[in-house]
Amino acid sequence: MADIEVRAYATLIKYLPGLDLKEGKKISVKEGLTIQGLLNQIGIPEKETKIIIVNGVHVDLSYLLKNGDRVAIFPPVAGGAK
């Protein structure tokens, strides 16, 4: 098993009940689980994600999770000046 810290932002917060915005949520997953597998496990639809950061580095859905990883999941965002 791998103990990881997961943070979700904006519209994705609803998928992590009990999320502490400062500390993230501690989750135990099977070592070697992919980011895609993590999304499936916590119920976040892939289409609702845009950026995945692990330990400060942008990764894709095939990244293999390991013990101690810190995962941040961001939805698509829009806005700005006209």
From TrEMBL:
Signal peptide boundaries: none
Pfam families referenced in this protein's UniProt entry, alphabetically: ThiS
Coiled-coil segments on the chain, per record: none
Superkingdom as given in the UniProt entry: Bacteria
SUPFAM superfamilies referenced in this protein's UniProt entry, alphabetically: MoaD/ThiS
Descriptive protein name: Molybdopterin synthase sulfur carrier subunit
Provenance organism: Candidatus Schekmanbacteria bacterium RBG_16_38_11
